[in-house]
Amino acid sequence: MASVQFSNLAKSYGDTPIVKEINLDIDHGEFIVLLGPSGCGKSTTLRMLAGLESISGGDIYIGEELVNDLHPIERNIAMVFQSYALYPHMTVEQNIGFSLENLKVEKAERIKLVTNVAEMLELTPLLDRKPKDLSGGQRQRVAMGRAMVRSPEVFLFDEPLSNLDAKLRGQMRKEIKAMHKKVQTTVIYVTHDQVEAMTLADRIVILNEGKIEQIGTPKQIFDQPKNTFVAKFIGAPAMNIFNLSNPKIQHDFGVSMGEHNPVLLGIRPQYLYLNENEVKGVEKAAFVDVEVISSELLGASRHIKCKYQDQTLVVETASHDATVKGIVRLYFNNTQIHLFDENNNTITH
Amino acid sequence: MNSITSQSVPHKAPAKKGNFWLRKGNKIAPYFFISPFFIIFGVFGLFPLLFSLYLSFHYWEPAAGLAAMEWVGLENYIFAFQDDWFQKSIYNTGVIALKSGIPQHALAIPLAFFIHTSFTRWRNTVIGVYFIPYITSTVAISLVFTTLFSRDFGMVNQVLTSLGNFTIADMKVLSWIFPVENIDWTRPEYTKDMISFVVFWRYVGWNTVLYLSALQTIPRDLYEAAIIDGANRYQQFRYVTLPMLKPMAFFAVTLTIIGNLQLFEEPFIITGGTGGIDQAGKTAAMHMYITAFVESDFGTASAISWILFMIIAGLTWLNHKVLGGSNH
């Protein structure tokens, strides 16, 4: 178990910067999720930490040790790949024990360690099988077993659940969380799936175009986004953002153009209600009148797309609100709106 | 009843008229369109194949016409097996196949790995250079090598003897390993080596290309997983590359077995069509050719060709047992 520190970490391919001077401190045993859209540099950052990618600038520390020039095996990390990267010609037992063999661990000790890990991950009956004979979830567990058997100081996960179906993904999330609880090792987990990030992370690091946009607990990230990128990236459907140049919008949302001079306003679809009594925390709810364009049923909930001042607005309501059409009134709590300045940064109230 | 049915079903095909080939329900047209393949395959593939099988049980003097064919049962096969020259040609073929085949693959795999990992921009050019011998005329290659291995003026002898005669303080220090006098490469003990070398040189590029294409399909993740698991470069080659190359190795070795057992052009030209002194360079395919077209014994030649087919089939089966089967 060890802390990890990125200090001005940078990576560029030729003249194209991919990761731009990232600074991040990760504590012992923490579960950190690097979250961002495709091409934001999250996997590159992870690969630099693993030693699979050279670094163009800055330093990486694992514990107290500077690891910039260390071989991956010397960093004492283990990695789970998106494709699992299991050796197809080896059995489950050989896959899990391969690193121990390379580290010249004695056979008896090796068998003991592999057996322990297999028991922990319920892989014991599968030890003699080859990857081709395993299901997606079982392969995922073998990949985790391969990572766990060495008792590494840091676990790295590179989008490990992307290849699984939705149901299995939910189950594997729980298993990964349970594993982290059991082994209490530092975990750095890369994903573009915000559900994974919200459910697994102690802290989420939001990356965009090679820069850190925000670091915080899942609740902080959702409730207090630092800027419009985070506000729109986290939450589904995305936060409704309006330009405040329209005086009607300013008036409807009760925004005073004071010293902070807000330029944009945001409100989450979950915080707009069709009934006034659903609004909590205020005596009198504010409201806007909108025109319903379409409605989408998602099982337990419904997304209603509306037109408001020539802009589109989305509301998430209960699924039984099926008859909503024409002009409707949406109620909200004024304290749940977000204001952004001309640099797209959140204005704190 | 029929007339009622035909009138009451509006989708019924119209009465047959118009172009015969385009008429709906024409059952002959599809067969007509695919017939060129079957005709060509039948005439040039299937018929010679079955005829040679039929012929292998007959004694036949082709100049005397088809009526002169005489049923002899397994006599041609028995004769071929008891024939010293055939036995020798099989032995020669085996030796040349092993001496040229094993180095081909032993070199092609690491060479492909080297090209795969060390070249990016110039990769295709390098592959092209290795591939050139494969697309060059066998006659040209064989003639060039015959010149290179010439006793008095060949470059091979010049290089070897100059090394053998390399002198330091009046002592020929390398004479224990290199010859000091020209070697006569046409002597029986060298013939097979010379042919093997030409075959090896010609096909090593082909096999390199095969292995290279297989290497390019190995996912990068596997190497990265191996690096994180602490595997060094050799261990990556041994535990990732080699097992992942197995399916291609099966294919490439099968092609080598088939190609080497049918070896004809190189030994034929290098030995001037004679098989060399003491028939040391006469392969089974050459023996078959001479039996048929020089000795006009088509029955025995056909039997030899079927014996060769059995040997190739057997070796391919063996190869499948060793290298066949997929990981995936």
TrEMBL record, chain A:
PROSITE patterns documented for this protein: ABC_TRANSPORTER_1 (PS00211), ABC_TRANSPORTER_2 (PS50893)
Keyword field: ATP-binding, Nucleotide-binding, Transport
Pfam families in alphabetical order: ABC_tran
SUPFAM superfamilies: MOP-like, P-loop containing nucleoside triphosphate hydrolases
Chain ranges of the ABC transporter domain: 4-234
MF-aspect GO terms: ATP binding
Name of the protein this chain belongs to: ABC transporter ATP-binding protein
Annotated source species: Psychromonas marina
Automatic annotation (TrEMBL), chain B:
Gene3D superfamilies (UniProt xref): MetI-like
Membrane topology: Multi-pass membrane protein
Membrane-crossing residue ranges in chain numbering: 31-55, 127-148, 199-218, 239-258, 298-318
SUPFAM superfamilies reported in the protein's UniProt record: MetI-like (SSF161098)
Protein name (record): Sugar ABC transporter permease
ABC transmembrane type-1 domain boundaries: 90-319
Keyword Lipid biosynthesis attached: no
Domain of life: Bacteria
UniProt keyword Transmembrane helix, yes or no: yes
Pfam families, per database record: BPD_transp_1
Compartment(s) of residence: Cell membrane
Organism whose genome encodes this protein: Psychromonas marina
InterPro entries: MetI-like (IPR000515), MetI-like_sf (IPR035906), UgpAE/MalFG_permease (IPR050809)
Taxon lineage: Bacteria, Pseudomonadati, Pseudomonadota, Gammaproteobacteria, Alteromonadales
The gene coding this protein: cebF
Family: Belongs to the binding-protein-dependent transport system permease family.
Sorted UniProt keywords: Cell membrane, Membrane, Transmembrane, Transmembrane helix, Transport
